[in-house]
């Protein structure tokens, strides 16, 4: 997902007997859907895991602007350009909501940024794939934002108050993102044979990376069990992936496009589609930094941070000067 | 004590300015005329003027507001979760403060 393979801190789910009194009271609140707020007591492992998860999610929103920003100046019409611009601006906002939520846990914005820039923190693997043409922008909105929504809708109920509130705001805006993507790719799928070919090609390239967004199967993972007990993870990766496939297949059929999976088949008995797993060795390779765009993405973020330094410093110096002048005048 | 629920106030009072980080501002938006301002989130900005400009970009992109307040987060005082008992329990026993406590005979009509 936008947060992938976040390992929970600690040694796994404790039984009630193993918990301290404080931990038991905390777990009772979580179990009863009472939100945990910044000033409430929380286990250190919960705090550390949430910083990792929310931080990674925030970084994904920010880095996720890059593949789409690539096409703002080359959008086919002024209307598409305005829409894409609005979408990319939303992503910046989503990053900000999430950074603010992470900051309530005691990490600073600059610390989070530095950890992204020097590679200590990750962002979603999906943004290490290139957007080669305009059809990819449609595919990203439809598939990548579609996959993100699968994960974000349940997270609105997460146990940590600021995270939950950020997710609620994000989900309100995310549906615009998916719909504009589907609308853009539909235009191409219903267009000339060349356009339809481009739409199919974009689906071919983004299908498996989108399935990877949910992360490898975690049904036996102790980390996932702990995160689920804390309600900072609501569904298993496999559940969400299945839901995504079930939702997306009819959408592709409507467009007359073919999901690039010869084994994709409706399973009457299960009431779900059977589908092929992505190549997980590719996923781990991308996570390690060897995807097609890893180096570009980090270089771009580092350049933006370095190039923006004089603006940050200048505005701060100006604010301090004004504040000092105001004190002197009083 | 403040009536504000500090949704996103940092738990740890760090010194961001020491690291040249812009201070954190809490943002309040009036959704429509006649409603009160509500806390919607926070952001970093060097001063109040920029905080309002940034809040406009971040929190009112879809006609969510007609007025913006910004307050530097460090200026907000908040009640402590551990004071929940002493602060709010006393009102639990005062059910007579609610109109439903009183039975009014049907014959009297709406009251």
Question: What brief labels describe this structure?
Answer:
A: 330 residues, mainly alpha, two-stranded antiparallel ribbon, 13 helices, B: 111 residues, alpha+beta, 3-stranded antiparallel sheet, 3 strands
Describe what this molecule looks like in 3D.
The complex is a heterodimer of chains A (330) and B (111). Chain A has 330 residues and is mainly alpha-helical. Chain A is globular. Chain A has helices at 21-31, 44-63, 65-69, 78-103, 109-117, 134-155, 161-189, 193-212, 222-229, 237-255, 280-290, 294-307, 309-329; strands at 265-267, 272-274. A two-stranded antiparallel ribbon of chain A has the order 1-2. Chain A has 13 helices and two strands; from the N terminus they run ααααααααααββααα. The longest helix of chain B is centred in the middle third of the chain and has 12 residues, at 48-59. Chain B has helices spanning 48-59, 84-92, and strands at 24-30, 37-44, 67-72. With 111 residues, chain B is of the alpha+beta class. Chain B has a three-stranded antiparallel β-sheet with strand order 2-1-3, with helices on one face.
Concise structural overview:
In chain A, 65% of the residues lie in helices and 2% in strands. Chain A has 13 helices and 2 strands, in the order ααααααααααββααα. Chain A has helices at residues 21-31, 44-63, 65-69, 78-103, 109-117, 134-155, 161-189, 193-212, 222-229, 237-255, 280-290, 294-307, 309-329, and strands at 265-267, 272-274.
Q: What fraction of residues of chain B sit in β-strands?
A: 15-25%
The H-and-E topology of chain A, N to C, reads as HHHHHHHHHHEEHHH
Global morphology of chain A: globular
Order of helices and strands of chain B: EEHEH
Alpha carbon gap, first and last residue of chain A: 53 Å
The coarse silhouette of chain B is elongated
From the alpha carbons, calculate the radius of gyration of chain B and give it in angstroms: 20 Å
Main beta-sheet strand count, sense and barrel state of chain A = 2 strands, antiparallel
Number of helices of chain B: 2
Q: Estimate the strand proportion of chain A.
A: under 5%
Which structural class fits the helix and strand makeup of chain B? Answer: alpha+beta
Specify the helix fraction band of chain A: 55-70%
Across the major sheet of chain B, the strand order is 2-1-3
């Amino acid at each position: 997902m936008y947060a992938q393979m976040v390992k929970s801190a600690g040694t796994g789910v404790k039984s009630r007997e193993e918990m301290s009194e404080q931990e038991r009271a905390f777990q009772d609140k979580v179990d009863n859907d009472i939100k945990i707020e910044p000033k409430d007591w929380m286990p250190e492992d919960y705090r550390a895991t949430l910083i990792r998860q929310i931080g990674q999610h925030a970084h994904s929103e920010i880095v996720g602007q890059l593949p789409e920003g690539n096409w703002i100046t080359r959008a086919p019409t002024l209307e598409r350009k305005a829409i894409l611009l609005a979408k990319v601006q939303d992503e910046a906002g989503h990053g900000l909501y999430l950074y603010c939520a992470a900051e309530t846990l005691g990490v600073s914005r600059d610390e989070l940024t530095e950890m992204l820039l020097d590679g200590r923190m990750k962002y979603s693997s999906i943004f290490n794939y290139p957007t080669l043409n305009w059809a990819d922008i449609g595919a990203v909105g439809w598939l990548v934002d579609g996959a993100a929504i699968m994960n974000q809708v349940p997270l609105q109920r997460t146990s940590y108050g600021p995270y939950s509130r950020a997710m609620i705001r994000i989900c309100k805006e995310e549906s615009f993102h998916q719909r504009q993507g589907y609308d853009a790719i539909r235009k191409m799928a219903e267009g000339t044979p060349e356009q339809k070919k481009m739409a199919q090609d974009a689906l071919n390239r983004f299908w498996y990376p989108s399935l990877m967004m949910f992360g490898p199967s975690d049904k036996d993972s102790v980390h996932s069990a702990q995160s689920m007990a804390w309600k900072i993870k609501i569904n298993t990766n496999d559940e969400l992936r299945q839901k995504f496939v079930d939702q997306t297949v009819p959408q592709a059929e409507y467009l007359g496009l073919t999901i690039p999976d010869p084994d994709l088949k409706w399973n009457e008995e299960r009431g779900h589609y059977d589908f092929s797993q992505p190549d997980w060795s590719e996923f781990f390779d991308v996570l390690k930094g060897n995807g097609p765009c890893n180096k570009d993405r980090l270089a771009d973020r580092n350049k933006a941070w370095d190039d923006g330094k004089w603006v940050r410093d200048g505005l701060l110096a100006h604010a301090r000067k004004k504040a000092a002048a105001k004190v002197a005048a009083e | 004590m403040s009536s504000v629920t500090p949704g996103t106030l940092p738990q740890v009072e760090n010194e961001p300015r020491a690291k040249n980080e812009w201070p954190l501002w809490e943002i309040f938006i009036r959704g429509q005329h006649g409603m009160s301002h509500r806390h919607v989130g926070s952001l970093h900005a060097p001063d109040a003027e920029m905080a309002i400009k940034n809040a406009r970009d971040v929190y009112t992109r879809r006609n969510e507001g007609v007025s913006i307040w910004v307050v530097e987060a460090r200026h907000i005082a908040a009640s402590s979760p551990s004071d929940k008992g002493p602060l709010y329990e006393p009102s639990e026993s005062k059910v007579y403060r609610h109109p439903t406590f009183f039975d009014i005979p049907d014959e009297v009509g709406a009251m």
